[in-house]
């Protein structure tokens, strides 16, 4: 766990920030393009069964199943942009046309899906659009270079993904497991790109039993792998790298923290994981933020007992209180 410490801004001595939530080793994201039929009827129920979240990138002009997408959003899955028309060589079109696709797809999704905002995009045909234009409307974009992404991507507008299914490099359960373990070895972020499932007519179909086998593997390794939507992984990375943790008061029985960052709170409001050694005389602790109780776990790392907890940057004061256990 000591090697799962993140990179961050001004963090007080003793405090550590997890590279991934819960100080897990790696992050895994499943993205689904084009709105193929069994993404709704097979994949969504499967992810809900395991308690994992996925990202869906429908094409506006291909007749998205808006009720199903809204239901997915209500369950915590992400609905992102895959442009309006999915035009090949869109990146070679004039800037005005590229911008129209970026803006209209986002606006339509935001008008049809409540409870979340569309802030990430998947490039059609894996062809990156004009970066300056994309940055105006989205916080990150998915490409498909076929490699495991670093835990801090070099370019948030060309985040790598790996194509799955008959036309991709990940075809079997063993292929999925190998990518999981490679991500763990690098403490990185593995993003999968899936289109069709079984016989729904989508590109590069992936057997549903293969999808399930990968999720079953992750279910047995929940302490190692964080399965998250594309947008939440981006939020966590940027917050983790920007966070400031400062003690504003410290007594024998209570510690007050200010956990802040310089990011837009309307978008970057995902909890990050912190830990610090239990103070002398403490065997357990309670944690609250802005007056609301938060989960806290006591973990032992290299014979040192830590209190581990989540906090939202700029979400109000965090108070750690000595507890009898």
Feature tags:
TIM Barrel; Immunoglobulin-like; 5-stranded antiparallel sheet; 27% helix; 325 residues; 2 domains
Molecular structure report:
This protein is α/β, with parallel strands linked by helices. The protein folds into two domains: 2-19 and 240-323, Sandwich (Immunoglobulin-like), CATH 2.60.40; 25-222, Glycoside hydrolase/deacetylase (TIM Barrel, Alpha-Beta Barrel), CATH 3.20.20.370. It is built from seven helices and 17 strands. It has helices at residues 37-50, 66-74, 95-112, 131-137, 173-186, 208-219, 230-242, and strands spanning 16-17, 26-33, 55-57, 78-79, 120-122, 140-142, 162-163, 189-194, 225-227, 244-250, 254-260, 272-277, 284-289, 292-294, 296-301, 304-311, 318-323. The strands form four sheets. Strands 2, 3, 4, 7, 8 and 9 form a six-stranded parallel sheet that branches. A five-stranded antiparallel sheet has the order 10-11-17-13-14, with no helix packed on it. Helix 2 (66-74) links the parallel strand 3 and strand 4 (78-79). Helix 5 (173-186) packs parallel to helix 6. The two termini are 23 Å apart. The mean pLDDT is 96.
């Amino acid at each position: 766990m000591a090697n799962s410490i993140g990179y961050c801004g001004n963090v007080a001595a003793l405090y550590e920030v997890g590279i991934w939530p819960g100080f897990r080793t790696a992050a895994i994201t499943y993205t689904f393009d084009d709105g193929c039929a069994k993404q709704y009827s097979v994949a969504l129920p499967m992810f809900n069964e395991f308690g994992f979240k996925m990202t869906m990138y429908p094409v506006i002009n291909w007749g998205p199943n808006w009720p199903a997408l809204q239901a997915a959003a209500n369950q915590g899955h992400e609905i992102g942009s895959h442009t309006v028309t999915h035009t090949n060589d869109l990146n070679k079109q004039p800037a005005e046309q590229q911008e129209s696709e970026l803006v209209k797809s986002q606006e339509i999704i935001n008008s049809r899906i409540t409870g979340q905002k569309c802030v990430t995009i998947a490039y059609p045909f894996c062809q990156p659009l004009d970066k300056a234009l994309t940055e105006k409307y989205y916080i990150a974009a998915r490409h498909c270079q076929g490699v495991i992404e670093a835990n801090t991507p070099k370019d948030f507008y060309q985040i790598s993904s790996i194509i799955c299914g008959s036309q991709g490099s990940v075809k079997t359960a063993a292929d999925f497991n190998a990518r999981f373990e490679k991500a763990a070895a690098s403490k990185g972020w593995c993003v999968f790109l899936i289109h069709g499932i079984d016989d729904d007519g989508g590109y590069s179909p992936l057997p549903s039993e293969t999808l399930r086998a990968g999720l079953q593997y992750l279910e047995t390794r929940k302490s190692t792998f964080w399965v998250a939507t594309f947008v939440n992984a981006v939020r966590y990375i940027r917050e983790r790298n920007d966070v400031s943790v400062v003690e504003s008061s410290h007594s024998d029985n209570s510690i007050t923290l200010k956990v802040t960052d310089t990011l837009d709170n309307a978008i970057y409001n995902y909890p990050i994981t912190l830990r610090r050694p239990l103070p002398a005389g403490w065997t357990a602790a309670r944690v609250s933020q802005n007056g609301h109780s938060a989960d806290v776990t006591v973990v032992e790392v290299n014979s040192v007992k830590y209190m581990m907890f989540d906090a939202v940057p700029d979400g109000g004061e965090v108070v750690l209180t000595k507890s009898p256990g």
